Amino acid sequence: MLSRTADNLFWLSRYVERAEYLARILEATQRLTALPLAYVGETNEWATAVSTAGCASAFFEVYDEANEENVTDFLAFSTANSSSIRSCFEQARSNARAVRTALTMEMWDAINGTWLELKRYGNGATSREECSRFLRWVQESSLRYDGSAYRTMLRNDAYWFSRLGVYVERADNTARILDVKYHLLLPDNERIGGPLDYFQWAAILRSVSALTAYHWVYRESLKPWQVADLLILKDEMPRSLASCYENIVRYLDAIAGAYGRQGPAQRQARGIRTRLQNSRMDGIFQRGLHEYIGEFITENNRLGGAITQQFLL
User: Fold this and answer.
1) Is residue 170 located within the same domain as residue 81?
2) How many domains does the chain have?
3) Rounded Cα distance, 79 and 70, in Å
4) What range defines the domain where residue 129 resides?
5) Can you give the pTM of this predicted structure?
6) Which of 17, 139, 162, 265 has its CA 20 to 30 A from that of 111?
7) Last residue of a domain, which of 153, 176, 200?
8) Which H helix or E strand runs over 190?
9) At what angle are helices 128-152 and 157-180 packed, to 10 degrees?
10) Per-residue pLDDT tens over the stretch 274-290
11) How confident is the model over 199-225, as pLDDT tens digits?
12) Does residue 147 share a domain with residue 275?
């Protein structure tokens, strides 16, 4: 496979996954800000949403205040933000068009149809209700594309590079959600286990479709260390860091087997996977969850660079 084709497939999947993640962040923020003030606390949830998306500096270059209107416009519809939902879908469609012959008909119909439907929203939603429908549509569009890829692609290098993009992006997104919760979201004077803590954790679990899974696994009320355990170490949880790296290692090994050679990307992925397997929540909390996740995000970004250097240039 040409490296250019692999690069387009890799980033096509990353952009679709990122668009869904941004929609989930905005939906969770809407849910939190709709709660009574006693459950929301003193933090600016909209500023937190921008921090979670990893574009706070770019946002405040354009806007003076982080409120619902500004944040929704910047993360969902702004053409000035290269990581907005609109920009992600436009870049995904551009990548898909470049490798049209590597996609199945169902995959092309899913991403091209999403791009065409996106135009219907023009410059943005005109009400909170319309915005909620838009965010739900984004999630459904992402699921439609992901499902078409999973169910129709031949299991070859095109499929493996496509899935690598999904899981590298998903690992980064899950890590950022957890990091912001501990580092920014909870005020210093709020006790863990209080009502504010409960509703924020519930919102975070909903943002990764894990609230029901949490109750199935732990069968008790929300506890921060168990939420972190579910989203970091549980292989059974599809959006956990451990599950993402189980899949990343699998697909990198498949590529290595097909091409007959190993490289830095495989070694780095296995190293991260091994550290996740050997980690325990008591040790992570003792060391500091923020520090642990910060290192993971750095290593995940480094792996993305290694994949690019090894395969995509």
Assistant:
1) no
2) 2
3) 13
4) 10-153
5) 0.90
6) 265
7) 153
8) none
9) 140
10) 999 999 998 988 888 88
11) 777 877 888 888 899 999 998 888 878
12) no
